[in-house]
Amino acid sequence: MIVNSLSWVIGGAQGSGVDSAANIFSRACAVGGLHVFGKREYYSNIKGEHSYFTVRVAEKRIRSPVDEINILVSFDAETVFRHFDEVTPGGAIFYDSDAAETKLSEVPTVDDYAAARIQGTLEKAGLELTVQGALEHAKKRGVTLYPLPYFKLLEDFAQKMNDPSLSKLARMTNVMALAASMALLEFDIEILARGIKHIFHAKQRVAELNVKAAYHIYEYAKSKFARDGFNYRLTTRAPEPGIIAVQGSQSSALGKMVAGCRFQTYYPITPASDDSEFLESNEVLELYDSGKKGSTVVVQTEDEIAAITMAIGGALAGARSATATSGPGFSLMAEAMGWAGINEVPVVVSLYQRAGPSTGLPTRHEQGDLQFAIHAGHGEFPRIVLASGDIEESFYDTVKAFNLAEKYQLPVIHMLDKAIANSITTCPAFDPARVKIERGAIATKITDAERGAAGNYLRFKLSDNPISPRIPLGTEGAIFWNTGDEHTEEGHITEDPEVRSRMVEKRMGKLEIALKEIPDEDKAMMYGEKDAEIAIIGWGSTKGVVLDVMEKLAEEGIRTKFVQVRLLNPFPADLVKSMIGNAKVVVDIEMNYTSQLGALVKQHTGIEPGHLVVKYNGRPMSLEEVYNAVKRITSGKAPRRQVLKNGT
Amino acid sequence: MALKLADYKTDVHNDWCPGCGDFGILNAIQMALADMQVPPHKATIFSGVGCSGKTPHFIRTYGIHTLHGRVMPFAQGAKLSNPGLEVIAVGGDGDGLGIGAGHFVSAGRRNVDMTYIIFNNAVYGLTKGQASPTLKLGMKTKSLPQPNVNNSVNPIALALVAGFTFIARGYSYDVRHLKDLIRKAVEHKGLAFVDVLQPCPTYNDINTKEWFSGSNNIDPVTKKVMPRIYKLEETGYDGIVRDPAEINEKMGKVIEKANEWGDKIPIGVFYQNEHIPTFQERISARIPNYVESPPAKQEIADLSGKTITNIEKLLDDYRLDRENF
The Pyruvate:ferredoxin oxidoreductase core domain covers which part of the protein (chain A) (predicted)? Predict the structure, then answer.
């Protein structure tokens, strides 16, 4: 019997409530005092294509996806076809018994490549190319099957509720499937009901109906299925105080509210839109100790060029301004990044990476934009690039991004990704008291010394300090100019070679100051054992999987350390070098083809990672494959470069 | 003390070509600002890229010379963050109707309370005379290797269908008239567009000052010059929408007038409609204190740098011991 440790997957056609069911499951487990880590996989499609949500549950904090499925919950044929082979021996599959005879060829959304793989597996085992065949395959490996006649269950429920129209409510099969699995897990139905009400709190009738349906199926499953053959149980307890269950698409937006971001522009793009939509949904803000309300103005623009330039306009007026986008949108923003750079405008870009190039895999994960973020735009100008490793970090980093933008008066790119945005986790509650807002040098009163010969404010004054106080448009007595051309101290166009050189030095000099002033913990973090011989380097959302792998290795006595680079530009070379220290083996782990961080580390520290572990199939790295990759390295059997390929 | 025209001038050397139509537009903007007594620090002139892009450097207000084609989003961003600013955007016809055409149309949909002036000379000047989006089909200005193969966009009609709520056309050699138009545009509640016909003496050898004034257009019978430019207001034309019921009728007339070109070219106010809510009003409907407390004017931290934004209620949604029902 395995208690409070499992990987639960629900799948179904996009638009059939997979997300809601997974969110209910996650919320219920978290309310039941368990830790969860969930990730969502879906096609670039509105309705019909296969989507699934994996939720890991444990008693301690977990941070990574896994490949293996202990419990597969389905209500369509495709989910069985796609995942039957991933369910572990001793695991279980809940499926629609009416769909058992469905042939593989009858599911048009299973593409040819996937169909060929499924066909290969089933034919090798001499099984029919049907759901039943797939189920037989799983059964042979020790998976228990739980047939659910959803059509009949709905009819029974409609009869019980005395409302024949309910039998047509196929939308409820998601919650019914979920409830059936919860019955076998012996999960507290009261807590499950609370989870349903929480997720559907905006739609009371839907919530009530789903709760009743959940009870109905819960009882059915309890009475129908023997539980002694079922290996997993979830036992609830009081949740740890101060723990939250939160989605990655909202954490940075919450950070923006706290940071005082009051102007956000965006053009719709997956997976970044949620950030803006969350801000807009909560545009009126509560303020402490004030009768007044705050607000965030969110503008959906005509394109990403307008998004970044409008945000820059907002910043010029004095507002903390940001835009949120993904790779294709950020490509369009490159020119304006340079404008913000040359005019020393603080603006924040939340860059939610997805798999590129071009449209790439619009709903899938990759860390392919690191070098692009560092270099986007022609010419040379200062920018700060920082990357968050998980949902919790992304909240605090967002505030830091605005502070850095304003202190050093430059564009800041805050790198996030699809894996963070489309995951859910339990973590300590975000604590706004832990953050400090630093707005940098702002001129409030202009003295004569700050004026040039023509009596105008010298916005770009050349002095020993490259940071010249900025000033919002509209301030009395402080008129200045901006231009995308090289400029004088007042901000007028110049092509003078001496002024040009000094202005380039002024701008670029800010990065040296930033590198000195940014605290070490915001530059890079070291986890694990300082003197370990194996050093793993990484950035962004691979943090979770690396930490979980390290824990597993530590249990076997394999000592490792992890250097998570958080500040990617300017690059904290000395710190990273000292953190890698005397490690004999340096392993670079990242979600791209070219080992972009590894290249940066080599460029800045001279240390060339001896091992590369990369992945670019659009699915985040799993615990198993990273563990195996590192084990291959420690056993001396690994090639220099290992390409990970797991994922559905 | 009253502000004088000189208060809006800088000592920056102006490197436009001698005889450039830009000078008249620059003067008209400065005169309009002086007329309205706009405190220089209250105004920001945004510009795109090209000859017209240099305009802000010659005006002593805040001046933001942006990117090619992007003047409108920059300007709207500033205005939305601080609606107290008087924002005027300027740019060329290539800038606003070529590379920036998408922004032009989208700006019309928003109706942000600001003014956009296009310096329209039908050529790209600073890159040496290529055809702009307003050059007529088949025209061959002197730098073109071949006659223009593209049809021209009609800025007045485009502004109308995009949703601009004030639409006027001026002529850069009629500075006083243009000044009045700019003043009306700035005072208009909503997004105002002023299309300014502006000879490019260096590259547009067709739509020249002489061509517009008619000095090369002599009536064969009367031997009198026949000016191409005429003023709408002198013909009794009235483009002001006084009642929402007359919007369709007025819009139809704008299209009719916008299509006049050649021997008769109207200038003046084509259209004005203050019945459409401005973007600021639309935001205020959702954020009641938006105008008093816009993005740029909000306090965000106390003196010690502590945030003043209270997200506790939102965090409650994630806390496990609290529920939203």
Answer: 532-626
